[in-house]
Amino acid sequence: MRNQYLAENRFAESVTDFCRQVEGYASFEGDGKTWLRQIGSLMLELEQRIQPLLHNMTSDTEYSMLQDLEARFALYQRLKSFLGSLDDYWSEGDLEAGDGLKTGSLADDITDVYFDLKRALNLYVAGPEHEAQALSMWVFSYRVHWEQHLRDATKQLFEFKIAS
Fold it and tell me: What is the pLDDT of residues 70-102, one digit of tens each?
């Protein structure tokens, strides 16, 4: 039981760090490379720290992106502008399509991960009576949505790091 509690707290700490980093992107004053390196490290940490939760929890919560679409789009636009040429990347589908268009977007991936994590973080910090619901929301939204965004972004950031 204690190990589960520690795993939950570590994950919540990683979520908090990731959300703060996303919210503080403007403090990097146009240095998207440094910001992306830090975001990449935090995304790897999130991936590692959610694993114990996946094995020990069921996820029986509702999930919807519809409740914050405008805020998601606003953050996406700000991050896309901030990242500039660092944002777009070739997705797997782009290579199959062969039309020369890049449809992968770090701004999109980071925005979607952020909103899924932040929604449950707000519950988590609201008090111990909400922690179980927040953890269930994190696990469920990971499985149905942000896992793929996390993996796409970390793959791209790994390739970016090698090329830099």
Answer: 999 999 999 999 999 999 887 776 566 666 577
CA distance 149 to 14: 17
Contact 105, 88 (CB under 8 A): yes
- For the entire predicted model, the pTM comes to 0.89
Contacts of 3 (CB under 8 A, 6+ apart): 52
State how far the Cα of 31 lies from the Cα of 9, in Å rounded to an integer.
Answer: 31
Question: CA 125, CA 60: separation in Å to the nearest integer?
Answer: 20
| CATH 1.20.120.1550 describes domain 2-163 | yes
Return the domain boundaries, the chain: 2-163
